[in-house]
Amino acid sequence: MQLVEKKDGFEIWQGNRILLVHSPKNPCFYVGRGEETVEMYRGNFQMEDYLTEKIPLREAVKEETAQPGVCRYRFQDRLLVEIAVCGDTATLHISGQADAGNRLWIRINGEKEEAVYGCGEQMSYFNLRGRHFPLWSSEPGVGRDKSTYMTWRCDVENKSGGDYFNTNYPQPTYVSSRRYFLHADTTVYADFDFRHEAYHELSFWGIPGQIRIQEADDFLSLMEKVTAYFGRQPRLPEWIYRGAILGLQGGTKRVFDLVEQSLEKGIPVAGIWCQDWEGKRETSFGKRLQWEWRWDEKWYPGLPEKIAEYEKKGIRFLGYINPYLVKDTPLYREGKENGYFAVDGRGGDYLVDFGEFDCGVVDFTNPDAYEWFKGMIKKNLIDFGLSGWMADFGEYLPTDVSLFNGESAMVEHNHWPVLWAKCNYEALEETGKLSELVYFMRAGGTGSQRYCPLLWAGDQCVDFSIHDGLASVICAALSAAVMGNGLHHSDIGGYTSLYENVRTKEVFLRWAEMAAFTPVMRTHEGNRPDTNFQYYDDEDTMREFARLTRIHVALTPYLKDLVEENAVRGIPVQRPLFFHYENDPQTYQIQTEYLLGEDLLVAPVYLSGKDEWEAYLPEDAWVHLWSGREYRKGKIKVAAKMGEIPVFYRKASRYRTLFENIAGR
Amino acid sequence: MQLVEKKDGFEIWQGNRILLVHSPKNPCFYVGRGEETVEMYRGNFQMEDYLTEKIPLREAVKEETAQPGVCRYRFQDRLLVEIAVCGDTATLHISGQADAGNRLWIRINGEKEEAVYGCGEQMSYFNLRGRHFPLWSSEPGVGRDKSTYMTWRCDVENKSGGDYFNTNYPQPTYVSSRRYFLHADTTVYADFDFRHEAYHELSFWGIPGQIRIQEADDFLSLMEKVTAYFGRQPRLPEWIYRGAILGLQGGTKRVFDLVEQSLEKGIPVAGIWCQDWEGKRETSFGKRLQWEWRWDEKWYPGLPEKIAEYEKKGIRFLGYINPYLVKDTPLYREGKENGYFAVDGRGGDYLVDFGEFDCGVVDFTNPDAYEWFKGMIKKNLIDFGLSGWMADFGEYLPTDVSLFNGESAMVEHNHWPVLWAKCNYEALEETGKLSELVYFMRAGGTGSQRYCPLLWAGDQCVDFSIHDGLASVICAALSAAVMGNGLHHSDIGGYTSLYENVRTKEVFLRWAEMAAFTPVMRTHEGNRPDTNFQYYDDEDTMREFARLTRIHVALTPYLKDLVEENAVRGIPVQRPLFFHYENDPQTYQIQTEYLLGEDLLVAPVYLSGKDEWEAYLPEDAWVHLWSGREYRKGKIKVAAKMGEIPVFYRKASRYRTLFENIAGR
To answer: Domain named Glycosyl hydrolase family 31 C-terminal: which ranges (chains A, B) (predicted)?
Structure first.
């Protein structure tokens, strides 16, 4: 990249293509003032900005600087920007001056055919072009589509319907089809607007310290650079490849009876994930958990012995935790006595409504609180014998709490999921368990790459809806991937069942066949286990789930290589097609297919009632996994009966024999 | 009012209260640039603005001017503002300079307790404080409440659900409880924002030529000034007081048979309003009309004779018209041959979809087209013998048409309803029929006061919903009133029936009892006559409707005096309570009661299943019309069985005997 100084401004070039321009006519910085309104209801946020000023900064005056290779520009009394362009990287250090205001806009040159991806884990749209994306960690929404009855009803009853941009994991970073990534070093509320043909407009409720733009020759190299910058996930523990992780609950007897039944049916079991190991509570939404993070001896009698017993059989036990503590429990009282919770503006208790129960928010900006909670994880979870857990939530930091570090909660809100991830990470690291234990999170932010070993896609509806069903998980995996989170999975069959919407056998099995072709298979009984289809509900499903899990296990050598590549180079396990077929323009628009590594193309059936499926294949020699039939580039149609998800392997793959064996051919 | 010049700015004072301030710290003008997106679907608009600049104009430089009493300020190269403050009036003439951009914001000082009203005919909120009001003529929406199933479904299926601010009749004018009105002389898209405690921010997609602010000592004087400026409505024709106007359709036989039945049941009939006099068409929405404006001889055989026959009995005949012509009819072809329709950007046909049929838009900016259409009204409607008509629509001018006068359709759109009103007005005026004929409109804008003799509230849902049912008509009447439109009425029982929502007998009767206490009673069979309750559906309703109409007729002496007052002084017939009780703060928040003249307070039952009702009475001696019981100030509860709408008269009224007789006491 290159910085070109002009008479009245400057330009940054990426090869022979312009990337950023400043001139009095086309300023790239705008500052202004806004007055925000933020309302939170159970993790659903309504953010509004009343804009009072938006000033284009037309005049840039160059100033001398002692640093070689750095150009410094002063934009009146508003901004000071130091630009360093070196090799593949441009960095813009931005300092707000006296009259900077509290809003900043930056325009990056766009191109007509350009596609952009990322902004964290996006569930609705992989290519972000044509839309804008508010970046604020929140509940992802139920339905996420204003045209559906589900979304409307959730909006009206609980403000929880969401929209296409809602995400647990936003990140002010995008990857361009021009083979660069741009990252804004800030955690303030941001909105990345890709609706304009000629430019991308990135806006911030504050002044980001730095904008980093880094290019590469191809997407794999770009991912190496992305993850070199943000960090890379560790390898998955060895035991995880042994089978599925069964999401079961309901006390010792029920859980282990179901495990035994599953084993009898031939389901390979890697782990038992027990979200109610710490007890449970009933709410109108469904079965919820007891938010006090210690073994519930009454609900799970004899659990330590069971954990030991099953570990000998090669089956691990996983639990659940989140960074809140329900009021009036012993742990809550301990935290409160020590002042470990975020407080209100006058130093009083601040309790957050999580849906019919209230909790204190552990103040991770207080080092003592952070260490206390980390210590609790070590003691109550790790020492107890858990091999992993869902590290849930992280998105609910209210914006009107007072924090120990004195920082505004508007700034810390998007930072919180990463602090929460880091707390878990360090608990593992400090106990030497990073390669043995695993936790999975839905919330995230800049740095999740380093601190979260496994994402899970959050709480999909138990259906085939485009914006909140099976299809949305593919988009989530791909957008997380380009952010550098190469390990992703989801609740098989989805989680949220509301009103008349319940999980069917078809939803479960289509989801399961997809999960077999992801790094991790894990079931979840959902928010209303009794009324939703479960894998153990009939013989036929047990058999089919066993078969799919065996396929997944059979993929182990291939998956391990991919996970290794992710750990070492930061190349994600699930990848967009254009990562390997960058000369094919059609691949840039695909968000319902993915490459599992370089050699498997997976085109999940994400609609109901299908027995054949249309897939797009980029130029290569592809072999349909189930029929062995060969295909080349183009839209093709294949049989797709239940259990035979459209999957194709590259004929030239060195894993060809493995794939052939999997198909039983 | 007074202009006070300051060192760096100026102030306008209303007595000892500040009204407008300009200083470098608190500028009152902001200019900027925006890029709008406008999408229309069947009269429902989606307006979006992408704001690229919003610049506070901090520096005002005073310039010399030859005009005495005028101060001229130059705001850089952006605005030139000439301020004249004289007596009760301040005017700001605004000229955009080279760098003005295409957006303007003006801040007017607000006060905490201040209430504001108007912005045209508003259906949801009378006091506009706390909300913003986009001002753009459109369909009013079905449901108008994003929390209702009706609105959601209409949005999803037809983009037609609307919101609280949708109106057929927007006007960039408000009346403040501080006893001034402010008017912006422009027809561009505007948004009046009353959400801020300290100021009202008025924004415009263009530079308004003038802002006028005029104060008065009391609200009645203020209304005189409002209507002195905008114009006043003529008196209603004499015949209208003789009874109800029956909305009937379906051909000669059906209509006149129903009239006869109505007369037999003792219903006083002033007119027959026949919307399908020109023929009809069936659509999925319901029965629609044949949009060619001439008598349909086949559908209405012998109509001229019938009109003459009934006129002798004192019963008038009214029809229907709107400013569009359906494609491929003789009148359409005539207009097309002469180039009388608005065209697309390349001069080609521009047809507007009105819901399963397409029409040409008569270009009223073309004097020949305007005269042609006016001549058609004279010939086909007036000469034919109609005594009035619904002059429907006017809100559908697309923003991408090319107009004869070369003006942007973005500017003419909000002007259109008034051009349409004027065309009707002149047809009456030029034929000497202003005192004998009447037309009623739902669309409006600045100038409707002069050119539209009677508003009707548009297409309410046939229900008790707050935002689109009976209650919304009261708000509509009051907000239209403060704009200077003192004659208002509505479709008894509402119009729009969709899905399972149909008009019940209760809705009809509650609406009818309210209509009896408005200037005009008129029924409408609605969009789906067959499935909705009609006044002629049962004996009981015929009898009750006859009784209510007789009450209405009995009010004639009082109503005529009010209509006279409206014509001469511009004091509206239906009035907000604070017009006469301005020292009572509670009256400023009331939008579900009104004063009919000074002496009747009407508190319509706008909810279902009530047999008593709570009303608020300001300080006075009030007599409950039906019981004769006396009340004074406060919240009171009265019996409110069907047919006995809560109405109170002032004990001191000179019409007391009239009111006593009406109640049959």
So the answer is: 570-651
